Amino acid sequence: MKTKKNFLAGLAIAAFATVTGAAAMAQDVLKIGSYPANPPWEFKNEAGEFEGFEVDIINEIASRLGMTTEINGLDFRALFVATASRRVDAVISSLTITNERLEAQSFTQPYFSGALGVGTKTDAGISDLSGLEGKRVGSIATSFPENWLKEREGELGYKSYSSYDTTANMLTDLRSGRIDAAVNDIVSLRYAFAQPTMQELQVSVEIPTGDKFAIMMPKGSERLEAFNDAISAMKEDGTMATLYEKWLGVAPEEGSLAVTPLPVPTSAD
């Protein structure tokens, strides 16, 4: 009888160890949401695996925290729902810190200061923002470029605006002439237009905005400070600069966001 009790106790302990071990393993994996067609920030390669500047950043953060990542592709608008519902631990997608977003989400310190670009056909004859008057323009739904355009509708005087779920659809419409101009992150546009199938497109206007890219997380995430500390360490030991040059083709400027450790932001300023 005693032997049977010991056997059952042993089974219980083994079962508990298995459950707790599985829970510990689950906690070692960071669930990451990402827009899957946003090179060079993040994109899927031919093998269906995520690559890109921010993919390398999030994987390096995970490594420094003794964790791994599980990256899932989501539509751009779904990224915000995923963090708000805490279905993911973090989101990467060249996301701009804004005061509106900070009301419902948390952000790490920024690591890139962006600019917008106006993409057009090479023969469009658009060389500055005044050229958008009377034109059909487009951008990605709920993105910083979309908000930028809508806030300046009266000033720019464009004829119509089209909102897109994917960059691919937006650029397809640009190539086919359904829109005259696409406004997006300038790095993404230049990367896309360097591809052989996009030779008839160009960045016609650069718009300095000073928007700051960072990793978005659920509001008040318990991992926020750890993420931020890891990014500071990456900036201090040169890892961030190495990744920056790998994906963007140039070394970051001295004193730029890519090399300057910062606290967790409480505003977009």
UniProtKB/TrEMBL annotation:
GO cellular component terms listed in the entry, alphabetical order: cell envelope; membrane
Domain Ionotropic glutamate receptor C-terminal, by residue range, is 29-250
**Gene Ontology molecular function:** ligand-gated monoatomic ion channel activity
Q: Where does the signal sequence lie?
A: 1-26
Q: Where is the Solute-binding protein family 3/N-terminal domain?
A: 29-251
Q: What coarse category fits the chief subcellular location reported for this protein?
A: other
Keyword Signal carried by entry: yes
Pfam families cross-referenced by the UniProt entry: SBP_bac_3
Q: Where in the cell is it found?
A: Cell envelope
What does the UniProt keyword field contain?
Signal
Report the InterPro entries cross-referenced here.
Iontro_rcpt_C, SBP_3_CS, Solute-binding_3/MltF_N
Q: Into which family does the record put it?
A: Belongs to the bacterial solute-binding protein 3 family.
The protein depicted here goes by the name Amino acid ABC transporter substrate-binding protein, PAAT family
Which species does the entry assign this protein to?
Answer: Sulfitobacter delicatus
**Classification of source organism:** Bacteria, Pseudomonadati, Pseudomonadota, Alphaproteobacteria, Rhodobacterales
